[in-house]
Please model this.
Amino acid sequence: MINESQFLRWAPVEPTAWSRIAYGRRVTYVSEGGTLSTSVRSVNSGTALYLKATIEGRMLVEVYANGKQIYDELVAHDELDCFIKVPKTTLNVQTDIEVHFIPATTGEVRILRSYELVCTNNTLNKAIVERQQALKIPA
Model:
């Protein structure tokens, strides 16, 4: 059960590597490789980052929380659609999250400017199943 959901925004680390494209009211960042970052205050246990991006070509996707790698995946011509568990922090401690899109060959990534941080009291697996059902994604 998803108890809380926050919609926050990414910020490009190297602004010249990213361009913004508006599809209606949804703003998407587009890049051939680069890094996005954000900061979140006091992450609870059971908190996950919902990461969704479209990748053309091949890219290595790495996610770091406070400098520690928490995810890496080589994605080829596919949509990256996953929950990434974020390590718990103490109250009022900021968690810096970075997502690196590293081209393995020529390619392009498209990711919404806004992202979702999901907090659950139950296991992360239940949140994933509920999100898949809401989005009608096969398990």
About this structure: Strands lie at 2-9, 11-12, 18-23, 26-31, 34-41, 47-65, 68-85, 94-112, 114-120. The two ends are 16 Å apart (CA to CA). The domain at 2-135 is CATH 2.60.120.260 (Jelly Rolls).
